[in-house]
From TrEMBL:
Protein name: DUF2752 domain-containing protein
Native source organism of the sequence: Hymenobacter duratus
Pfam families the UniProt entry points to: DUF2752 (PF10825)
Keyword annotations of the record: Membrane, Transmembrane, Transmembrane helix
Membrane-spanning segments: 68-87, 108-126
Lineage: superkingdom: Bacteria
Lineage: Bacteria, Pseudomonadati, Bacteroidota, Cytophagia, Cytophagales
């Protein structure tokens, strides 16, 4: 598959933007710098499935898996899935295979992640030890 100027430029921009974000989250700890805060938590006081993901990403980039799981267990569990999916997407793109054959486009994965996010959101907002353990 030949890359057109448009797709090559978009791919290069996406890769550079992702690399820039990874460097930003590696260098700066979101707990100590003014990164965006969760609007759901700010408005309702409830932890959404994404609360703590920025700090979890920072910890994962430094190799602290346990600390990342403490910030956001769902993000720590799904980070390898997303990484493998992106590698598979890049391999498929370079090989010229259909995107619909990649892991990230499978319906069972999408529905499974959505179900996990809903259950995770409910469990982390429950009173008691389970909610306290899953809260960031």
């Amino acid at each position: 598959m030949l890359l057109t100027k448009r797709t090559a430029g978009a791919t290069a921009f996406g890769l550079l933007a992702g690399l820039a974000l990874a460097v930003l989250y590696f260098r700066l700890d979101p707990a100590h710098y003014p990164f965006p805060r969760c609007p759901v938590y700010w408005l309702t006081g409830l932890h959404c499935p994404g609360c703590g993901t920025q700090r979890a990403l920072h910890a994962l980039l430094h190799g602290h898996v346990g600390q990342a799981a403490g910030f956001n267990l769902l993000a720590a569990v799904l980070a390898p899935v997303v990484g493998l999916g992106l590698l598979e997407e890049a391999r498929g793109y370079l090989a010229g295979t259909s995107r619909r054959l990649t892991l990230l486009y499978s319906p069972w994965l999408s529905w499974g992640i959505a179900a996990m996010a809903v259950v995770f959101c409910i469990l982390r907002n429950l009173p008691g030890p389970l909610g306290a353990w899953l809260a960031p």
